[in-house]
């Protein structure tokens, strides 16, 4: 009886459980899924109406259906909803009382529908609502009564609608709002107090609207918690001063793709915490010094795709944290290297798409780029020359110093843009017009008469020095620029042809050098009094004892001397230029090295082994070279072949490394082989004998009478000399054979 009662109870429990499961399935609406007890998911099921359910539903998903209207009783049985998804339907009208019973609703998604108007009080009962999406509809107007007093609302999306106006009270009661999306509307006017109640707002997107001006200082004055402000894609032509002055926490500001022509000095005032500023795609013509001064913490600055032709050298001085700067696709021709001297954090500098003029004005920029990379900082900055035509398409870092300094004047300073026209205004005789001469005198320049007078005075002071003929000076690198970076310019290439022939050096010197591989030049001694030299042609006469030392396969040392009492006229700096080129080749490719006036030796590098070279030394006085090629201060030398000793050492080192590797391999192989042998020996020992104790008990004494005829005579004989009770051991194969 007891067993029968237990079986009936088990059957009853199984039936009850099945009934509960059937009831649960019946409670889930048709064509919907109910993965959890309080979730009803009906997305993309082709529904045209909201399904009914008797369950206590918390999450209802109806996205991607064909629901056209939301009536007053649509959600009457869903009083416990916390999340309602109605996006991607065909809803045109929402009844004012549609959400009357949804007092616990926290998230409402109405995006991507066809709603054109929301009646006042529609969202009034939703006091717990935190997220409201109404994006991608056709809403044209909002009032203070439309949204009601949604004091718990945190995120509001109204982007991609047709809003044209924001009134004063539209967001008045949304005191907890933190994220507001209003992009891609038709906003033309925003009341200056429209955002006055949004003291907790952190994100505001007003991009892609029809705003043309921002002049009201109170427009964003109450948004003291704002972190991100996006104003790109509007028609902004003017941004007034102090508009952003109260945005103390703003870290990201976008003004891109507008029509801004000028930034006033106070436009960015108050943005002390800004980290990213984008103003690309505007019509800015210049960036004045002081405009960006308030941005002391900015890290990313985008000024690309504007019309900028000039940037003040002090523009970025205070931006010590700037790491990314984009100046691409503007109309820049020059920029000072000092413009980035204080930006120690800068690692990405976009300068492409400009019409760079690679002349002496760009020398400091090139030097700054080289110095930055030399310090180990990773800097991406590419400057592609557009002018002059000879350098078009070439990158600035690959332009040598001679090509850059071609625009330097005789006084050692860079020629201004207006001076290029002055050179063209001279007549056939090379004399300037009276108007041009007067203008140059005003700027502190020298006329040809001044130069002639200065040369006459130099000859008067040094009657022993006679010039064979009058020569003109050609522009050369400034002394100050090259003296500071002589070591960095070793081996700098120049494409300018140097007028040298075989007669430029003494043939007996070259002959002696080629045969003996010992550099030698004729030693000269000058005994003069205190001499002041006025130009390079004069000073070249005092360069003596040019010699070559330490010739190797890749480098050599050139030294020379000058009288100690020989000096240049005060104000004219002295620099030496050393030429070296392969001798006897039809294609000339001379290279130059510049040293300071105090140096009397230089190391030539990047030489080819077993090649004949010629090297000449000449002076650069006041930034000018003598146009007459040097003859008396040249030397020839032949580089040596690669050292055989180094090859032998390299071979020995290679052999030693190979030997060590072989020994290591043998050692490892020996250890492995020993391990294998030990394992095999151990295996054989363990399998050779098997103890009888595993098959018989040792407690029982051995009885000879128990031996049967199946035991061989050999076994009996083996056992005859043993006592009873001894443990018998024998091979396994014999045991099984018996």
What does this structure look like?
By secondary structure, this protein is α/β, with parallel strands linked by helices. It folds into four domains: 29-198, Leucine-rich repeat, LRR (right-handed beta-alpha superhelix) (Alpha-Beta Horseshoe); 211-399, Ribonuclease Inhibitor (Leucine-rich repeat, LRR (right-handed beta-alpha superhelix), Alpha-Beta Horseshoe); 474-644, Immunoglobulin-like, CATH 2.60.40; 689-738, no CATH class. 21% of the residues lie in helices and 17% in strands. The chain has a 14-stranded parallel sheet with strand order 1-2-4-6-7-8-10-12-14-16-17-19-21-22, with no helix packed on it. The longest helix is centred in the C-terminal third of the chain and has 45 residues, at 644-688. The radius of gyration is 47 Å and the shape is flat.
């Amino acid at each position: 009886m007891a067993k029968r009662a237990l079986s009936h109870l088990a059957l009853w429990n199984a039936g009850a459980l099945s009934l509960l499961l059937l009831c649960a399935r019946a409670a889930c609406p048709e064509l919907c899924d109910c993965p959890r007890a309080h979730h009803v998911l009906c997305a993309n099921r082709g529904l045209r109406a909201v399904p009914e359910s008797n369950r206590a539903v918390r999450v209802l998903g109806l996205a991607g259906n064909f629901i056209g209207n939301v009536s007053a009783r649509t959600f009457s049985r869903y009083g416990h909803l916390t999340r309602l998804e109605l996006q991607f339907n065909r809803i045109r009208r929402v009844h004012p009382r549609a959400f009357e019973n949804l007092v616990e609703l926290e998230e409402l998604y109405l995006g991507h529908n066809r709603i054109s108007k929301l009646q006042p009080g529609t969202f009034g009962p939703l006091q717990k609502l935190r997220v409201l999406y109404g994006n991608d509809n056709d809403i044209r107007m909002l009032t203070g009564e439309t949204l009601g007093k949604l004091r718990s609302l945190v995120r509001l999306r109204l982007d991609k609608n047709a809003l044209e106006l924001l009134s004063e009270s539209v967001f008045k009661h949304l005191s907890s709002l933190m994220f507001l999306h209003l992009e891609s509307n038709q906003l033309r006017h925003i009341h200056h107090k429209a955002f006055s109640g949004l003291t907790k707002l952190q994100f505001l997107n007003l991009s892609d609207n029809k705003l043309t001006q921002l002049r009201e200082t109170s427009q964003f004055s109450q948004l003291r918690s704002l972190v991100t402000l996006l104003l790109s894609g509007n028609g902004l032509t003017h941004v007034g001063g102090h508009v952003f002055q109260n945005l103390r926490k703003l870290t990201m500001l976008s003004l891109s793709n507008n029509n801004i022509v000028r930034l006033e000095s106070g436009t960015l005032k108050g943005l002390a915490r800004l980290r990213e500023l984008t103003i690309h795609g505007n019509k800015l013509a210049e960036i004045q010094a002081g405009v960006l001064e308030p941005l002391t913490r900015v890290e990313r600055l985008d000024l690309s795709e504007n019309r900028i032709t000039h940037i003040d050298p002090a523009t970025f001085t205070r931006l010590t944290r700037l790491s990314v700067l984009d100046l691409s696709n503007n109309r820049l021709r020059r920029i000072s290297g000092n413009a980035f001297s204080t930006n120690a954090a800068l690692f990405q500098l976009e300068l492409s798409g400009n019409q760079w003029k690679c002349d002496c004005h760009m020398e400091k920029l090139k030097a700054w780029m080289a110095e930055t990379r030399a310090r180990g900082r990773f800097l991406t900055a590419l400057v592609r020359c557009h002018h002059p035509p000879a350098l078009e398409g070439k990158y600035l870092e690959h332009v040598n110093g001679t090509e850059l300094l071609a625009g330097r004047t005789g006084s050692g300073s860079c020629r201004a843009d207006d001076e290029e026209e002055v050179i063209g205004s001279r007549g056939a005789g090379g004399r300037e017009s009276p108007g041009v001469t007067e203008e140059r005198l005003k700027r502190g320049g020298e006329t040809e008469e001044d130069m002639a007078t200065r040369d006459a005075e130099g000859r008067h002071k040094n009657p022993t020095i006679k010039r064979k003929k009058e020569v003109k000076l050609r522009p050369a690198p400034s002394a100050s620029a090259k003296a500071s970076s002589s070591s960095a310019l070793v081996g700098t290439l120049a494409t300018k042809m140097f007028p040298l022939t075989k007669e430029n050096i003494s043939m007996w010197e070259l002959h002696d050098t080629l045969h003996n591989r010992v550099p030698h030049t004729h030693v000269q001694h000058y005994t003069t009094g205190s001499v002041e030299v006025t130009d390079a042609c004069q000073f070249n006469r005092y360069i003596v004892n040019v010699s070559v030392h330490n010739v190797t396969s890749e480098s050599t040392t050139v030294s020379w001397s000058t009288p100690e009492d020989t000096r240049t006229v005060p104000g004219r700096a002295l620099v030496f230029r050393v030429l070296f080129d392969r001798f006897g080749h039809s294609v000339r490719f001379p290279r130059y090295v510049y040293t300071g006036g105090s140096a009397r030796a230089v190391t030539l590098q990047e030489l080819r082994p077993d090649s004949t070279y010629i090297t000449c030394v000449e002076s650069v006085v006041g930034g000018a070279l003598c146009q007459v090629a040097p003859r008396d201060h040249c030397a020839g030398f032949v580089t040596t072949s690669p050292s055989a000793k180094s090859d032998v050492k390299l071979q020995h080192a290679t052999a030693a490394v190979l030997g060590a590797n072989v020994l290591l391999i043998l050692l490892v192989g020996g250890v492995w082989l020993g391990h294998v042998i030990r394992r095999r020996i151990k295996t054989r020992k363990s399998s050779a004998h098997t103890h009888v104790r595993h098959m018989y008990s040792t407690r029982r004494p051995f009885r000879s009478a128990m031996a049967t005829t199946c035991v061989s005579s050999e076994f009996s004989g083996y056992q005859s000399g043993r006592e009873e009770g001894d443990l018998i051991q024998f091979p396994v194969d014999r045991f099984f054979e018996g």
